[in-house]
Amino acid sequence: MVRSRLSRFTNLRQGKGSRLPADADPSARPTGAGGKKPSSAREPLKSPTPQKQGGEEGAPKEDRIILEARDVSIYYGDSPAVKQVSLVFPEQKVTAIIGPSGCGKSTLLRALNRMNDFIEGTRVEGELLYRGIDIHHPAVDPMELRLKIGMVFQKPNPFPKTIFKNVAWGPKINGYSGDMEALVRQSLEQAALWDEVKDRLHESALGLSGGQQQRLCIARALAMRPEIILMDEPCSALDPISTSRIEDLIFELKKQYTIVIVTHNMQQAARVSDFTAFLELGNLIEVGETDQIFTKPREQRTEDYVSGRFG
User: Fold this and answer.
1) Average of pLDDT values for 59-83?
2) Reading across the β-sheet that carries 65-76, which strands appear in turn?
3) What pLDDT is stored for residue 310 in this prediction?
């Protein structure tokens, strides 16, 4: 079952299983594989302590941190796209990453579940921690990581299969042995799509509208039962009505999932997110609660960007 495969992450955190030697340092990664070995690797890695984000007006102390970047730099060849970014992602909250084109937003987002591994010449320095485990640790299987941290892309990309098979495909190839029909229905309901497609489940997904296809892609991600959903400008190709439905869906999903969304739409970031991080030229300029970022930013560059003076 899918859950049995994902239990390896729990075992890794607890030091169980043959995939991680009992005396291994869980923060270690081989030098040259994913970047420099962090200086903190000599100390046993502990689960990150919930912390304020962006100063006194940042994330509340009681928020649990599920994902964290520590001094992360990401290179394409010798060129840095992200520069020493430290950022925490509270559990069951929506964090928006904003910034002008080319600032490193999508590069950072893809790094959170190692999608950048598919880009030749990409190198990561620093630490990316999922529940306290460095995701570049040699015992971490990137495929299993992506089951826990799903992604929805900018352009809807349904498979050329039926609506039902689009949702069932991932669980099926990962050994899910439960009630597949119930899983597909639940996933489509969570994606606010069931009522629109329940009589068309065995028709091609390519016949859906753009907004429906994007919600199908969200349902496909939800069928894997992730803890985190990464969204890379999920509404950029959609009309206003479809965009509104996706935003309403995000509000519902954060009751069960942690969501990280990249968006160029300032109004969207203000509407859907709890926390906002502003990047410029690969640098993290400011991060904090969304209301504070949009109404009382501490940095002049942040105010200039959110007010439309540049970008």
Assistant:
1) 87
2) 79-90, 65-76, 122-130, 133-134
3) 78
CATH number of the domain enclosing 239: 3.40.50.300
In the chain, the N- to C-terminal Cα span, in Å, equals 46
304 CB contacts (<8 Å, ≥6 apart)? 310
Q: How many domains does the chain have?
A: 1
Parallel/antiparallel/unpaired status of strands 228-232 and 258-262:
parallel
CA distances 150 to 3, 37, 193, 234, 244, Å, are: 15, 26, 19, 13, 22
Q: Which residues contact 210 (CB under 8 A, 6 or more apart)?
A: 156, 237, 238, 239, 242
Residue 16 belongs to a domain: no
**Angle between the 210-222 and 240-253 helix axes, to the nearest 10 degrees?**
20
User: Which residue range is the domain that position 244 belongs to?
Assistant: 61-306
pLDDT of 4 above 70: no
Whether 106 is covered by a domain: the verdict is yes
The distance from CA 127 to its chain's CA centroid, rounded to whole angstroms, is: 16
| Residue 283 located in a structural domain | yes
Q: Which tens digit of pLDDT belongs to each residue from 274-292?
A: 999 999 999 999 999 999 9
Radius of gyration of the chain (CA): 19
List the structure tokens of 136. Answer: 């570049």
